[in-house]
Structures are given as structure tokens and as C-alpha cells.
Amino acid sequence: xxxxxxxxxxxxxxxxxxxxxxxxxxxxxxxxxxxxxxxxxxxxxxxxxxxxxxxxxxxxxxxxxxxxxxxxxxxxxxxxxxxxxxxxxxxxxxxxxxxxxxxxxxxxxxxxxxxxxxxxxxxxxxxxxxxxxxxxxxxxxxxxxxxxxxxxxxxxxxxxxxxxxxxxxxxxxxxxxxxxxxxxxxxxxxxxxxxxxxxxxxxxxxxxxxxx
Length: 212
Description:
alpha/beta; two-stranded antiparallel sheet; 7 strands
């Protein structure tokens, strides 16, 4: 059982690898492409399918949040959850949807046919839906094949621990290089699994994965 002072003893306000809301998550994100340049392309496009696709835990939602919250704040933005039974109407605005696959097939087809600029995350590419709108430009990012360098992972992990810092005058834990390298070799580009492993380690007062 955790001591009530466990995180305080580490100079942390909470477990650094707990869920963060999208706004806080932005401070711990290392983009794997130039999101600002992509935003400029979107603004200059009249009709577009843009999809971030690939396996879960590889950064799709994080990059979509950065794109919308930091560069396209006027877009209509929906974050869907597994339990949602949501219907989304086409809009004259830019439409961004996290977890596009959770919409019904009928709703997805309607949006592909009628939405001018559609940006979404999904597990499998829906590029074949372009047949519904041949006038659309297509742009896709496959996060399953996208590189994640160890140095970038180190920066993400350090940023998350920094966000949880309690006292700026006191040191905070640092994940040991050997442990982080082992996680990197085990999970490759699956950031979610890496962070889940670190969450469990930071629950353990006797963990040897980090040092002060």
C-alpha cells in the first residue's frame, strides 16, 4: 500500500504517468513532424481528407490535439470515447475527430461525402473513402511506421516528470537510462505501453527504475 507521503518524498504532486488532459499533454509532446507547416497546408486547402492512422498508443491523438489546440483553435473538435454513440453533422468549419472509427458507418460515409475539410485519427486508414469525393486532397500519417527516436522518448518522459514537480528548488526523479532503453527495445514506438510500465514503477516506493 502506498505511503501517503510517497509522491511528496519524490518531490512530485502525482504519478507523472497518470492521464493528462490534452492541454497539459501538449507540454510533454515531442512532435515527429512539423505541425505548424501542416496547419498552413490545411488553411490553404479547400477540400481535404487528413488522417492520422496506426496502432493505439503511438501518438495519433496527441498530435491531433497539438494540431487543433495550438494551430487551428477555431476548428470543430470532437474527442470520442468507446462508450460514445455520437452523431456528428458536416460543418462549414474545419472538422477534427479523434477516434473516427467509433462513428457509425453511415455517419462516416456522410462526413466523407459532405465535409470539405475532415481531419481525424483512426486505427485503419479510410483512404478508400476518397472515392466518395474525388475532388478532395488526401494526406495521411502512418504512426505505426513513423520513427520514434530514443532521444525523443527521453524528452517526453522527462517533461512528464517535470510537469508533476512539487517544489522547483528540490530535485525530481530521473528514469535510469538502462531502464528506459530496455522499455524502448521492448515496446518500440508504443508510447502508451512505455508510460503504463512507468506508471506502475512510480507506484512502487522500492522501484529501482529511477534515481533522485
